[in-house]
């Protein structure tokens, strides 16, 4: 079940990133983050009420709150790094996020078998290559590298925190709701500060309502991905769950190929193949 839930996580995150990337071509990234997370928080609030999740309050919710505070910082750092570019360096470098949950799993005593260790190495290499690493060309700004490392640390921390947020399904709904409310508060505060400073944090012509379904998809896919990752981490080794969940850049690249007819570079195609091999090794090890 760990492999199944983790692969579902990578699929959902990959599609959410693809949708978010398309939306940020038409509106500011901060608007995409805040609106999509607000929609997700609303839906989760209804689920919490419907399932009686309010009764699951406890100390574990602090993990969800922390994940909600860290998540927007990581996401905005990543978007800013992508803006500074080059994307061929930023995107693969962000996959270092997997080091946080894997490291925690090893510290807690998890010891992958030989096949799983090989699968982790092959899958991580595949994800890096699928990002289309840029080994030459324009110089990389130090700020872009620092922002990417901040984003990677943040994403990895969210991985680890959300896995500890709840042990029951109804409690998971409440934990995800708390996380999303914190996301909205943090992102909303950044949006308010940006508007006060006169930056282009909001669309000039207001929110295009035709984009609301796409924003809802991005927010709900991201929520579902956090939920399936939490389930994956609860059902098996965190080291395996984290690596399989980190395959989402492959999904994003394939979605761009399928929907936008973007051609995969040879290194990206090789990376997708290696990621698949690593997945098989992890699932069978």
UniProtKB/TrEMBL annotation:
Pfam families: EamA. Keywords: Membrane, Transmembrane, Transmembrane helix. The keyword Lipid metabolism does not apply. It comes from the Bacteria. The chain crosses the membrane at residues 28-49, 61-82, 115-132, 144-163, 169-193, 214-232, 238-260, 267-284. Residues 3-130, 144-283 form the EamA domain. Belongs to the EamA transporter family. This is DMT family transporter.
